[in-house]
Structures are given as C-alpha cells and as structure tokens.
Amino acid sequence: MTQQNSHALVAYFSMEIGLNPLMPTYSGGLGVLAGDTIRSAADLGVPMVGVTLLHRRGYFYQRLDQKGWQSEEPVAWAVNDFAEPMEPRVSVEIEGRAVHVRAWRHHVTGMSGHTVPVYLLDTDLPENSPWDRTITDTLYGGDSHYRLCQEMILGFGGFALLRALGYGNIFRYHLNEGHAALLVLALIEAAIGTEPRNGEVPPEVIEQVREQCVFTTHTPVPAGHDQFPVELAHRVLGSRRCELVQACQHQGALNMTLLALRGSRFVNGVAMRHGEVSHSLYPGYPIHSITNGVHAVTWAAPSFQNLYDRHLPDWRYDQLSLRYAISIPGAEIWRAHQDAKLALVDEVNRQTNAGFDRDVLTIGFARRATAYKRGTLVFHDVERLRRLLKEAGPIQFVFAGKAHPQDQAGKDMIHRIHSMRGQLSVAYLANYDMMLARLLCAGVDVWLNTPLPPMEASGTSGMKAAMNGVPSVSVLDGWWVEGHIEGVTGWSIGEKIEACGSPAEDMEACHARALYDKLEQRVMPCFYKDREGFIEIMKHAIAVNGAFFNTQRMVGQYLRNAYRLVGQDVNGA
Ligand SMILES: *Cc1c(COP(=O)(O)O)cnc(C)c1O
C-alpha cells in the first residue's frame, strides 16, 4: 500500500442523486441508482465523495386532475434541514462571464459508520445575476441552453469545488452518464492551462485524463444521448474550450457520450445486454457491463427486514446471505408479504378510493411515463383482458410515474391509463417518488415491465420488487435477460426479443398477446390455485435475484474492474 493510495478517493459525479426520500434531488432510475451506489459505498467503507447539483426546486411535484391530466409544480424544500453550506466559493466561466458556485454538504453514513460526503452545487448567490442564480434550480428543466449551463456547473464547478475543499487526492473520477462529461474537459484544462492551443490536446494529456476517468453509460439509443448544437456549445463554452472537444462533434452537435467515451479508460453499460448494445453503437470503444443493483436495506419493506433479521442475521452486511432465503418457511414469507401488501392496499384506497382488496392478485407498474416503457400495453386489447378476468379471476392494477413536462406522449399515456378506472380495477397514484416506490415494489404480488426492446438499459424497480420476494412478469430486456428463469424467478412476456416481429406496432400487439397468455396460463393459476408454488417463486426471487441484483455486489465490481481500488486500503486508515 502506497502513501498516495491509502487516501485514494473516488469522486462520483451525477446530475441527479436520490439521497433521501425527502430531498427532491432526483427524477427517477438514474438518480435512485446513484443514491443506492453511494449508500453501498458507505456500507463498504469505500473512500468516495459525491458531486451533484442542489436542485432547489427539485424535478417537479406531479398533480393529476380528475381526468388524469398531469400538471407540474416546483418542489419546495428546506435545504438546510438536509445539508450544511460550505465556505469555499469557485467560479465557472459561462458565456464569457464568471458564474459563482458554492456547495452544500450532505453526509451518507454506512452500516459501520463510514461516511461519504456528497456536495450539492448551488449558484443561488447574491454575486450572480438573477438568471445565473437559477441555474441549479430545476433538474432537467428549461431548454438545452439551461441544461448545458447546468452541465458546465457540474463538470467545471464540481471539479473546482473539490479542489477548493482540499481534495487534492482524487484517484478516479466516475462519470455517471454523459451529463458529467464536461468534467473530462475540466481535467484537460487543468493539465494544459488556459493558453490558446490551436485546438490541440497533447496525446499524453488525454492519456493522463483517461487513466483517471470511469464512465457509465445508461441509454441504449442514440436519441437518448445528451448532445448540444455546436453553435450553442460555442456560445456557452467559448471557442477555446470548444476547439479542444472538436473531435466529439457528431452531426453538428457536441455529443456528451463521445466526450465521456474519449476521456475514460473504463466504460460500462448497466446490464449485460446494454453493454453489448452500447458497443454496437460505438464500435471503436470497448464497453464492459456492470449490471445495476439496488441498496438492499433501503428497498426491503419493514416486514421483510424483520424476516431477514430473524432468518439471515448477516444480510445487512452481506447480501450474499439472501441466497439462503430458500430455507425460510413459506408461511413466514407469505405473512411478511401480506403485511407489505396491506400497507399498499390501504394507501391506494386512501389516496384514490379504488376499493382494492388484499386477497385479489395485484399487479404493479411504476416508471417514467414515456412512450418506450409502454405503460398502456396491458390495455392493448381490453376485450381480451375482460374475458381473461372473467375466466381466470380478478386482477387489480396499480400504476404510478411522472411524464417529463415536455413529453406529451407520456402525459397522454397517464391519461389513458387513468381513464381505464371506469371499466377495470385500476388506480394511478400521483407523484411517484422513492417513498411510493418502497410501498409499491414491496406491496404488489407481481411487478410488470413492458419496455420496447432494446430500449430498457437495465431497469431497477423489478430488483426492488425481488428484494421483497415479488416476481416480475417482463419483456426480456434490460436486467431481466439475466434475472429471468421461467417459472422460477418470474415469467417472461414473449420468448425472445427477436420472436416478436419488428415494426413497433406489430411488436406491441405481439407482446400484448404474449402477456395475456402468460397471465392466463401461468401467473393467475399459480397465484389463485397453487399458493405453495407461488411462494416458491417468491423465495427464488429473493435467493437468486435479491442476492445478486444489489448495489453491494455492483460496487464490488466497480472497485475491482473500474476503479482498480481492490488490494488498496479502502478504509483509508
Ligand atoms: C427505482 C425507481 C425508478 C426506476 O425504475 P425503473 O425500473 O428503472 O423504471 C424510478 N423512479 C423511482 C422513484 C424509483 O424509486
């Protein structure tokens, strides 16, 4: 162990981090994953610091009117209840002017007391212009100009603030998604200075930066990748900086994924299939896979925490022990599940007056309301669904999820689901957040997932469900390609991705038929007529999937494969 490494630090940069259910600093899966990563890093004693933006007005608070139309409000929250302001100020040059930045610190404390500090960057300072004061207000808000300014704050401001706070010893920078890519440029600039260079970055500087950076990509489709028109980039970054990243332009846009790919020695996708798909998008770059996970203690419902404490006493420290869930008596699994289910049923009835019944098969679907997630797939053929309910037994459906304010197709989808209430047992819960996710993922009997393949990079809510013994019925995409064993950990919709035709409409009809068949022939008979068989599947969801799809395993893979921190003194003693 060398002196340098005994203090080796990983700086984790992410535009959103779900630190606490009461801090609206995240929008969905990406932020929750970032939070779970930091919680597991704290548990494992990894020397890490997190960097993100403060998001004073959050993502947004979702209201649904009586017809199921979404409207958005800024989230009001008391920043100083959750974080403390730091002294140092730095400035970032944006459009040729200095924007001043400070940070607020929030501590995440692990199982054994190790803490990971997270710095939330804030431009709401009196020395800034009124507009600049709003840059760190709204996650994914405004137009692309606003978003690029936010990315300047994250990359350049984050880098400068860590230095100002005295972190001179960063061993690895982890870029969580392309939003953090300007960090690469900040590192290049720190190495070569701000003298004009005719756009040349010496190869040894690129090598030195690459050695320090790890990049995780989260989107399997080119349209989902963060990019900005070149003119806009010139305006915001200035021409000197823009010249340095000329090689990262693609079709008239500065492509943040390309910038992060070029600046990182280790790149990974977030599930096995996603790594393969990403590699085919960017054939010049080796892309590894490190499959996502969830933080076990955060996502196990109180009744399951209690059950695991009694039967698997090491589970909080060692999530491999979840493998031994196969030895927990079925009646106890069922009792813990009934507790979690009752908590959900009560909440659904309180919020929506849907009249849910705890003995009825309850299927949950909660995700970002956007076209590719296909939240309305289960209503593709309402007649068929009605017949199925008549013959195989009742089902109640609970939904949740926000549409991005500018995603009209997503808003239409929420409205359509909401309007099924008249004819079927359907509830749509407003303002999906971590608190609601805890109730939903644990409290339903089956977790439904219907993305249009190959659009789901990983998905994590099904992992939260598995942590509570809840099996998934899902299209074979994202993590389910790895987590699915038919009739053992849950069920697939369709056999193989390729088996369902290619135009999206054909695939939708094909997947809908496959879903109805699977519900009718497998899921419903199992739930209503073979309770013991159903409980066996619940056990395997925990033992096979809970034991693997957790962030303790995932952070271990980052330590060994990406950060190369293993063998060094990760406790920083
Ligand atoms: C876990 C979680 C998500 C991500 O779910 P996916 O399965 O990736 O769609 C989104 N939002 C919230 C609030 C979550 O807790």
UniProtKB/TrEMBL annotation:
EC number(s) given by UniProt: 2.4.1.1
UniProt keyword list: Carbohydrate metabolism, Glycosyltransferase, Pyridoxal phosphate, Transferase
Classification via SUPFAM superfamilies: UDP-Glycosyltransferase/glycogen phosphorylase
GO molecular function list: glycogen phosphorylase activity; pyridoxal phosphate binding
Cofactors (names): pyridoxal 5'-phosphate
Family annotation (Pfam families): Phosphorylase
Key word Ribonucleoprotein present: no
Reaction it catalyzes: [(1->4)-alpha-D-glucosyl](n) + phosphate = [(1->4)-alpha-D-glucosyl](n-1) + alpha-D-glucose 1-phosphate
Any GO BP annotation: carbohydrate metabolic process
Sequence similarity: Belongs to the glycogen phosphorylase family.
Function: Phosphorylase is an important allosteric enzyme in carbohydrate metabolism. Enzymes from different sources differ in their regulatory mechanisms and in their natural substrates. However, all known phosphorylases share catalytic and structural properties.
UniProt-recorded name of the protein: glycogen phosphorylase
Originating species: Nitrospira defluvii
